[in-house]
Amino acid sequence: MTSISERRLEQRPPLEKIMDTVFLWAARISALAIAGVLIWIITLVFIQALPAIGQFGLGFLFKSTWNPVRDEYGILTPIYGTIVSSLIALLISVPIGLGVSIVLSEDYLPTQIQRILVFLVELLAAIPSVVYGLWGVFVLIPFLREITPLKGPSMLPAALILSVMILPTISAIARDALINVDIGVRQAAVGLGATRWETILLVILPAASSGIIGGIMLALGRALGETMAVTMLIGNSNQLNVSLFQPSNTISSLLANQFAEASGLQVSALMYAALVLAIITLVVNMLAQIVVTQLQKI
Amino acid sequence: MLSSEDTINQTQAVLNAENVDIYYGDFLALKGIYMEIPKNKVTAFIGPSGCGKSTLLRCYNRLNDLIPVFKLNGKITYHGQNLYDQDVDPVQVRRRIGMVFQKPNPFPKSIYENITFGAKINGFKGDFDQLVEESLRGAALWEEVKDKLKQNGMSISGGQQQRLCIARTIALKPDVILMDEPCAALDPISTLKVEELIHQLKEEYTIIIVTHNMQQAARVADYTGFFNVRVTEEGKRQGYLAEHDLTEVIFQNPKEEATKQYVSGRFG
Amino acid sequence: MTSEFISEQFDPGSLKKNTKDPRTLFGLIMSGIAGTFMVMAIIPLIIILLYLLIQGISSISPSVFIELPPPPMVEGGGFGNALLGTVIMVSIGALISVPIGILAAIFLSEYSGGQIANWIRFATNVLSGVPSIIIGVFAFGAIVLTFKTYSAWAGGFALSILMLPIIIRTTEEALKLVPQEVRQASVGIGANDFQTVLFVVMPAAIPAILTGVTLAIARAAGDTAALLFTALFTQFWPNWENKLAEPTASLAVLVYNFAIVPFKNQQALAWAAAFILVLLVLLTSIISRLATSKRQF
Q1: From CA C286, how far away is CA A26, in angstroms rounded?
Q2: What is the pTM of this model?
Q3: What CATH fold (topology level) applies to the domain B5-105+174-263?
């Protein structure tokens, strides 16, 4: 018996061994390709941006001229617009998203209805950005013109649409964090005579805070880089306007508008702008990931 | 069912279950409970798993309200007031009837804040430092943690956490303390400390303790209720109160055959 | 029961609900606010879906699927070329990202539990947060500049990078759900590693993996920013003779282009195309819901 099984072991075709190795390496290379792509993206954009970096240096970030005729470029207005539109969007969607996540994690509604609502909120995230833009152009802007001094595309509709688009990110991650809070902690608070909202505000929210902050940061990352809807609604003006009813610009909409028709130094300037956006969103996303993974470890 | 009714009625009943049926959805989990809980005594609930003893315990401070499918028929009165009347606020009930859980569940906050939490939400206006010291002393924990009150409540040992949870409960100055297998997650030494604490606490509080450990029931309880399970005609398991009496009667001279078998370790 | 004694120290009324109690009141107000927010979150969705339904259906006829986009002010026409372009580019994207994504996920769940896997996971999550416009810029630099032409290939390449993280994440989750016993059983009867993964673990996870691929396809089909200056747009059919190395139309870019023109007939086509895109998203979301609710294990 022993000799037979030994013979069988030896008989394993060498092809299978090779297959094993090939397969392992294919998997390994594919996995490393992910990190590779990330590095490739940054390197390529950086190299393409080099001429503009050499020409304008850091001053690029603080000038608001964008003049392809005289090849003078600065992205102060888009940076301002990117940050302001994202912050306004957060200002609106953080409280609403938290409210949604609380309603959908408490026992206010029957499970069936809760599940449908969770699905609907997730659907908000799945609708393509360009469809939000289309709707904003034909429905939101005309509506806002009725009730505000708004004349056309400007900061306000762009920020409003952004807030709708990032809401699901906040509410989904916050809801996960709230649900994952140990049931024992909730029972302890309730057992001590805390009302529902005392339990939520004093115990559950603090315990879930790192997940919630991670979700808000992911949403911020999404808002900073969001392109189509913003491009269609913000008006794409390089004039620095503080008023929310005036057109503005973001880095992503600058890219969307000008890239296809750009040439020469303008391409490099746009690459520089893309590099700035990439770095900002990468940093925000990495921080968010770190916060969220910290949460999962606990 | 209460065979030594005279003995129990010599003290006052704080809590009184009258013909209580407990449902989860359509499922009748616990049927026909009549039970009086005497003041300033320790009452132990024992019985095999699934007999509903923990479920009943959580009815006394309406903690089962957190379970959507839970339903209770009958009356549980507290000093004569039915806790399940429409107009009773469960928040007020829980403030008077505190609870200690099976798994120690301190808040992820400092030891100090763990104690003051209940007092704060209930509008306590006195000296918080004094309250913290009193409560921790009351739970025999003060000497061990007095130098680390700012530390996270989750950072101390399991036994200390459980006593912190008891301290947190007595900080509210409740009337009754419900304990759901408070030593299940603790080592023998910590268990002993908590049991000693229970002895001290009954001077001031009425205590109900659910336990799987019969020696523990025998050691700490003045009265013991034995819950049993029967299988209904539809094949479902249904809990009921088999016998409720002085602890020594339950352990040495029970009326029911099932009780005798259970306390002698022959099933369960 | 000596109730006389008890009534001296205990007032049953103190247990009663009191709507004027500030704590109760506070809870009611907060619940009201949270409920209002819930409604506010759903309203935009309903309005958008309603508009799409009304505008989209009224603009859709069989001819829109097969005809070319019309010039301004000319009735009729369709987005046949854009539909085909989207199908081509999403297919290219899937052909690149599905094998790489699945292999990467297999590496994460089957071959590595260590620090490298955590780094790859981290990179995957970060990649999924990279704005699609940046991916468009990248594909422009990597493909368009290299081959000196806008093409369906550049568009498909950009879409594949968008799809990768989605496929990796859903596949890894699907593989993790396959119980360890299944692997042990396979290894126990003498299967090689790749046999175990390919013939035992993968088949068990296939429904969930397909769901992930579907989600990735829906996401890619709706993405515009990655195509704006990789595939660009054209009024014409995809050119097979030129091996697709020409600007290629897509539904998403068509919506963008026709939304910002003042011509009613083109705007109507934008709504119709948007309706198709959202229908696709809706269908895939529902399918993925159904597929994941019926887990194999």
Answers
A1: 33
A2: 0.88
A3: Rossmann fold (3.40.50)
